[in-house]
Amino acid sequence: MADLSLEPESALGGYTQNFGDTHLREVTGLDIVSIAVSSGARDALSTLLQEKIGLPWPATGTIERAGDEAALLGLQADQCFRVSASQQQNPVTELACLVGDAAYLTDQSDSWVVLELDGASSVSALERICPIDLSDNEFGALNVARTSMEHISVIIERPDTHRFRLYSPRSSAHSFLHAVTTSLHNL
């Protein structure tokens, strides 16, 4: 019998490319866990998250971040994503050990492709395909939003001034990469 083992493969094969002063790359190795909370339990879960992982429940449209190691993305009043670079064997089990049954957890790690756009032309490239105002005063550092780009669902976060992370369903990874690279080429 053959000795076979499975190896993870990223959606875009570790894509990376420079476009003048701006760098686009696929971010791999992230644990993404959806955290949902039942009505009326958010404050208790926020306290528990603060105690266990050092981050409180984020307000909708904002990010609670611990450097590049972990973040809570406030997607709506009763749901956030925990994004972590810890690469746990089972990120849901790891988080469930910390929060118990205070939240509903779902592993989303392999469901999303994540692109990071970093550089001075980031906003110019994204404003061509993103319908939300990405100016510093409207969508500053530590903001997050659900939107669409070229008819593809996207979660966009802004870890700092010139850097954006774009989460799109893995099933549309190549179409999404094409949309972003085309916008960068057309600057």
Rg, Å, rounded = 17 Å
Shape: globular
In terms of quaternary structure, the protein is single chain
CATH architecture of the largest domain: 2-Layer Sandwich
Spell out the helices and strands N to C.
Answer: EEEHEEEHEEHEEEH
Largest beta sheet, briefly?
Answer: 6 strands, antiparallel
CATH homologous superfamily label of the largest domain: Probable tRNA modification gtpase trme, domain 1
Mean pLDDT: 93
Taking the alpha carbons of the first and last residues, their distance comes to 55 Å
- CATH-derived topology of the largest domain: Gyrase A, domain 2
Structural class: alpha+beta
Low-pLDDT runs of 5+ residues are none
Explain how this protein is built:
- There is one protein chain.
- The protein has 187 residues and is α+β, with helices and mostly antiparallel strands.
- The chain has 2 domains: 16-28 and 110-185, Probable tRNA modification gtpase trme, domain 1 (Gyrase A, domain 2, 2-Layer Sandwich), CATH 3.30.1360; 31-107, Heterotetrameric sarcosine oxidase (Alpha-Beta Plaits), CATH 3.30.70.
- The protein has 4 helices and 11 strands.
- The protein has helices at residues 42-53, 91-99, 122-126, 173-185; strands at 16-19, 22-27, 31-36, 63-66, 70-76, 79-84, 104-107, 112-119, 143-149, 152-160, 163-169.
- The strands form 2 sheets. Strands 1-2-8-11-10-9 form a 6-stranded antiparallel beta sheet, covered by helices on one side.
- A hairpin with a 2-residue loop joins strand 9 and strand 10.
- The longest helix is centred in the last third of the chain and has 13 residues, at 173-185.
- The radius of gyration is 17 Å and the shape is globular.
- The chain starts with 15 loop residues before the first strand and ends with a helix.
